[in-house]
Amino acid sequence: MHRRHFLHCSAMAGLGALGVWPALPVRAAPAQAQAGTSAHDRDWAWLTGNWDVRHQRLRERLVGSTDWETFGGRSAVWPTLGGLGNLDDNLVDLPAGAYGGVSLRAYDAASDTWAIWWLDGRNPTRIDPPVHGRFDGDTGVFIGHDTLRDKPIVMRFTWRAIHGPEPWWEQAFSPDDGKQWEVNWRNWFTRTATAPSPLPTLPDAPHDWDFLRGKWRVQHRRLRDPFGNGSDWETFDGELKGWPVLGGHGHVADIALHPAGGNEHALRMYTYDPKTRQWLAWRLDLRDPTRIGAPDRGSTSSGAITFLGEDRIGTQSVQTRSIWSPQGPNAARHEQAVSADGDKRWTTWWTSDLKRAT
Fold this sequence. Notes:
Elements: H1 31-35, E1 49-58, E2 68-80, E3 85-92, E4 99-108, E5 113-120, E6 131-136, E7 139-148, E8 151-160, E9 168-174, E10 182-193, E11 214-223, E12 233-245, E13 250-258, E14 264-273, E15 278-285, E16 296-301, E17 304-313, E18 316-326, E19 331-339, E20 347-356
């Protein structure tokens, strides 16, 4: 179940920052769009901070229902990806029981649109299909496609009065490709803080990522070609900011890199699957801000968190390994390796040493 239904390179083109990047060609935005990207880094600045939220929603969708219920909630919103993304963590106080959810957003210069994804904390292994759109004055409209009861629907998110004292959002579904719309959810936001801070951690939350909370300075060391000259390393610095989401059942790492070729930004979100007792690693970066790749899975042993996955380098299939580990109260380390022979031999090709920023 998720909010919409509610009833229901770098060294190689295929690998990347603090977690393996998906092996996709980089989408080249037109030069004019690239030049105008910085004009959008404050599109969501009005939403940054902490909020009390008043919700109103239909109990059933697209069945002619007029039975609305009201309830409260809270939201915490951070800018990400150098301003060309943001993320909100939400606690929804449903009468039937509270739950958490996360929205992720990223700006795509090639299409001049924002993409918005939703992950329902009750199903941490799935991210919903995105909606896409842009702002015009105090209003933003975002359209996407999904299914409801196994039938296709069009979804519409609308933000209104975004620069006023009480911005509000509504969701509508259409069963006939946009000819008719039914509004099924509205919420109104009242600011409680201008600077974001994490929502309370739940009593049953795992503590695996506690060591990575806060702001960090990072020193990176990366092989230019993991399958070539094993001594051709490049070094560069960066920053990382980490914080909990989903009541501690998730963690976010917002990453800035400063290699010689130019600044890069990436986001990693980790969600805990209690059924398998594994972590899922979701990745989003500005090389292709229209896509969140399939997650790698990982588990914790002796304080370290190890993720294993698969990727492609050109036509070659490879296995990937990513290990996070604390190195005392003010240091941490991340190491990435790749194997082209079915896990027989691993080549460490990227190390990142983190020191807590004061």
